[in-house]
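tokens incoming
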């Protein structure tokens, strides 16, 4: 292996230490203790682990972490009521609904029994939307005047900045067009004034996806490749330009292993730098969620 490993765990720890200081200073000045409430619907094991990790991370930096649990068969109106109460509660600064919501159909097989995720997310007060999923917050990002930054894209850019891997003028290929990662990171890397300064923006960005023709041909042009497609080890070593930087956002369970969207061993022979899975992007996502929660509490 020749690639440098980009250590997301260590970077996230540095950021969490900064956040803990920020929270201490805020509370010492008489500010209210920041509070993040996670809404967890059903008993999906992966979602439970994610919520537990977020809760623990909150407590470690002095943020109050609360969890509202609802059964998998909760109705959409019960969920909307809960969101309404959290919106109105001045002691709650950040709200997140853990995704995905349970898939379900009624006894007649009618999928309309499913909860409308969009409607639920739209009900969150944009000033408490620490995931930055609401259309208002997405619009503000696209106009380069963000209120909250989406957690995973922000974490990726902070990681690039920590390792001094600038993107200005470079070719970036993002694989995956999700609302959570692909679309916002493409937008943020193409921006003029990046969240970590212009050196970590101003890229020439291609937003590719699972239906792109000649995908390997496209990825081979990337100086920076961001894999966020959700397909285990889809991106092979020979899809990568020698000397490229590879950011693997994927977290896929294969048997009892967690793997990314990139075939790590192969890619690490070709790339100059690469994120591991786990221990790459994942820890940064939570760190940036904490940052947004402090911003929501302090109005900064
Ligand atoms: N599920 C997977 N990633 C995320 C995320 O970033 N936010 C929320 N709320 N749910 C998720």
């Amino acid at each position: 292996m020749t690639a440098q490993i980009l250590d997301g765990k260590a970077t996230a720890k540095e950021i969490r230490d900064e956040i803990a200081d920020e929270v201490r200073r805020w509370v010492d000045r008489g500010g209210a203790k920041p509070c993040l409430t996670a809404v967890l619907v059903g008993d999906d094991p992966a979602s439970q682990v994610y919520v537990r990790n977020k809760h623990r991370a909150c407590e470690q930096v002095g943020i109050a972490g609360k969890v509202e649990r609802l059964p998998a068969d909760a109705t959409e109106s019960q969920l909307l009521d809960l969101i309404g109460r959290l919106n109105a509660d001045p002691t709650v600064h950040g709200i997140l609904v853990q995704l995905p919501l349970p898939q379900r159909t009624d006894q007649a097989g009618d999928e309309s029994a499913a909860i409308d995720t969009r409607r639920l997310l739209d009900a969150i007060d944009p000033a408490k939307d620490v995931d930055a999923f609401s259309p208002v917050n997405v619009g503000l990002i696209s106009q380069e005047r963000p209120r909250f930054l989406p957690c995973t894209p922000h974490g990726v850019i902070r990681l690039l900045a920590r390792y001094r891997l600038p993107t200005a003028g470079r070719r970036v290929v993002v694989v995956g067009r999700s609302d959570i990662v692909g679309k916002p990171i493409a937008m943020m890397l193409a921006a003029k004034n990046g969240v970590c300064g212009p050196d970590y923006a101003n890229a020439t960005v291609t937003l590719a996806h699972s239906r792109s023709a000649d995908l390997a041909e496209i990825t081979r042009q990337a100086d920076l490749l961001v894999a966020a497609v959700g397909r285990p080890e889809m991106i092979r070593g020979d899809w990568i330009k020698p000397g490229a930087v590879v950011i693997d956002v994927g977290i896929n369970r294969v048997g009892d292993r967690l793997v990314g969207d990139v075939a790590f061993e192969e890619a690490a022979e070709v790339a100059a730098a690469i994120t591991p899975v786990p221990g790459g992007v994942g820890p940064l996502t939570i760190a940036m969620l904490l940052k947004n929660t402090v911003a929501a509490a302090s109005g900064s």
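note: The chain has two domains: 32-127, 150-282.
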